[in-house]
Batch of 2 targets.
Target 1
Amino acid sequence: MFKKISLYFTALVLVLTTIGSAYAVTLKASHQWPGTPRADGSFDVRHEMVQIIADEVKKANVDIDIRIYPAKSLYKPKEQWKPMTTGQLDISAFPLGYASKFHPEFSATLMPGTVKNHDHALRFNKSPMMTEIKKIINDAGVVVLSDAWLGGGFASKTKCIKNPSDVKGQVMRAAGKAFNQMLEGAGAGIQSMPSSEIYTGLQTGVLTGANTSSGSFVSYKIYEQVKCATPPGKFGLWFMYEPILMSKKSFDALSSKQQKALMKAGKVAEEYITAQVANLDKKFEDAIGHYRIVLEINPEHSNAYAYWGASLSAMERLPEAVSKLEESLTLNRFNSQAYDILIDVLYRQKQYERAWDMVHKARSGNVSLQQNSLDRLSKVSPEPADKK
């Protein structure tokens, strides 16, 4: 009898031990970016980095389960640093500049001109400056799992930002304290907020412009709220250090085997973003749609707005198309292509009188129009006598 009980007890202990050790350690990972796919099926690259670490650690079979809390569902973006230093939060994809109020030195990781491009970022990771920055991170109670640098650009509802004078009078969101000071010095008003709030800030009029990373520009669809965007390009004005960080208290509580698995997973995530960053800046441009980025406002770029209008017309977004075509003609009142497309769009909207107004305006400037468009318009609405 005792032997049977002993056998049952041993079996029960084994079952419970197996169940309990399936994931002996659960780590919480927080970040502010969407955890859902975009229209093209891709995810924000910073979410992907955290997911890669979770997947790699799971494959290593070291009894660690990483639970990801995206879209600021666990902590607000700028409130993640302190919980990491105390061990309340285990892991975060974190723009280091957000913690510059605790460590002013962190502002240097997004200073304009510090990092010139993605290749320079890789070399910069091994620089004396970054060695010192990582020492400050470590001394504060945080460990770097993966390095990551994202290029940054500018966007505005009113004008293109290419020079310091272009921000004068604008209300800007800046990526950090040092950037705030520089923009204020150039005559801009400042509204401080994380990148996850830029869209609403622009939508409600709290902001007229912002600087943010390529990844955030795409993930938060900021392109929907701006008139002009200036992407990083081959030599970006600024780059932002956005590493994957882990609480040192949480890290030190792990076994040596678990620590090695995490560091190895962090390297895999780092290699992934290194391969992806070149495409991020292109996504910045592509996300705006055809011809939405206008790097210089002058008559030559009237065509950019004309093509943008044509793109919107093809998507049946006719009122928006009219708006962009009118902007094209504001830049260059002799743009025959813009007139032809606008007349066609107005025809499709059955705004015949307005279409004839555009015909008359073009003729007054000796602008040649496509005859087939005029013939089609004439069939449904004869040309008014006062327009001939």
Note: Residues 1-5, 7-22, 290-300 have pLDDT under 50 and may be disordered.
Target 2
Amino acid sequence: MSERKKINPMTEKLLWAMSAGRCEKCGRLIYRHPLNNVVGNFAQIAHNLPVSDKGPRAEFKIIDPKADINDVSNLLLLCYDCHKEIDEIQPDKYPPSLLKQMKYDFEEFIVKATNRERVIPTFVIKYSPNLHGQKLQLTGVQKALFPDKVISHEVDLTLNNSTYFVEDPEYWQIEEKNLIRTFNQKVLPVIEDYKDGFINLSVFAIGPIPLLVKLGELLSNKRNVDVYQLKKSPQSTWEWEFTQEQTEYVINYIQETDIPEKIIVLFSLSGLIRHEDVRKTISWENATVIEVRTNHEPSDDYLRNKLQLDKFVKCYQVLKEKLRNSCTNNIMIHMFAAIPVSVAIEIGRHRNQTVDLPLTIYNFTNGIYKKAMTIGDANEKLS
């Protein structure tokens, strides 16, 4: 059995410097208590390859008497939760190669973050339409942008003092008109002021899925846009996590029709779309029905890192291509979605107005799905 040796104090100081006092897995500050903000040492030092021959990842150890298990290259500075995660809860999920890459990526991020010459200006766009009489406050934006960006412009597209709720029949038309008008008045002029229209846009939005899809369409994928996702736990934050969490997206054909009169697409990502609820709203007769799911159970807080969002965009582009190739007529897509807000925006951003099928989006209110908005025209011919 390997003898545990004390880590050299200079190595500890070096590790703290390389991680900038943050957990190298989740990025949390670990010189302040997460609840009361009291300053102190709340870090734990984890070994990638363990000291003990029975420790996590011991099977990957190379027997080398000259190897220093306490070298800074084998150490990670972690918070209590992340240390427990990699060593006790799911050690098999974190092989040495993954932890080594995670450590390298985070420490490279710190190097870049402290280089002020690479900070870029960004135009912050906020949007939080009225839901049930409450306007959600979007806080923590500056923290999410650090260290790569500094705010050059900021606008809130929300319709203030609206007396209409999502349950009202007029809600969707009024909110959509306001969104388009405000975007054209407050966003487009700023973009056009920049040479070649190039400016980074950072989007922070919470609201009903149909309106977020519309916001995405207005933003389009022809502009330099970064969409952020609000995470709810362990604390509310817009910051992307520095994790290698993997999510695969699967396209399942629930029902296929040779010459469909309509296409029904269910996105069961953050929650499960119940088929019986959809059938109450729209007939499945002469329809092709498709469901997009993740390779894990639906969860309303699963989207933690940017890679998961990028993978969805790739899946969505594959889905659109399949639909375009299989439909000779410009038939309607009927969309039922339980998805993160950032996914909704990306669906709109990556909709090609010229070649993609028109899209009707439904909203789940008071236990039933109701038609909310239609994007595109079913009477137009596909290019």
Note: The radius of gyration is 24 Å.
